[in-house]
Description:
By secondary structure, the chain is α+β, with helices and mostly antiparallel strands.
Amino acid sequence: MPVYNLKINGKPHTVEADQDTPLLWVLRDHLDMVGTKFGCGIGQCGACTVHVDGSATRSCLLQVGNVEDMEITTIEGISEDASHPVQLAWKEIDVPQCGYCQAGQIMSATAFLEQNANPSRSEIRDAMSGNICRCASYNRIEKAVELAASKKLS
Ligand code: FES
Ligand code: FES
């Protein structure tokens, strides 16, 4: 089986896997990084969102053979102690209900705020529209992204 050298959360990892293994399963099953969730497996829900070279990306659609030498960041890597402004805002607004979608939501929000530091409510809604929440925490998500933007600006 081929061996791949991956850079995840700033650290090197070596994994042995079929070339077409989705990055999602490499993270969860090979590396025990289970913060990234499986929802649909077909790019429709956003539960599996990670950053690849800084962009929010569906890890269920990425094959491990295509991500060598890229900078991969998972929910485990955005801060050591949940002190990222987006995580602080999430706590302050008390966003999660069941929590299942939330890692993906936070990864989308963090990548979005890197590109747009002071977004309007409608820009937030557009940016987050690809992340599904079965508990319908959308209003709180939008408020938390707004609050995170203000924390980053202050
Ligand atoms: S599990 Fe990847 S988008 Fe749903
Ligand atoms: S908090 Fe339950 S799916 Fe989003």
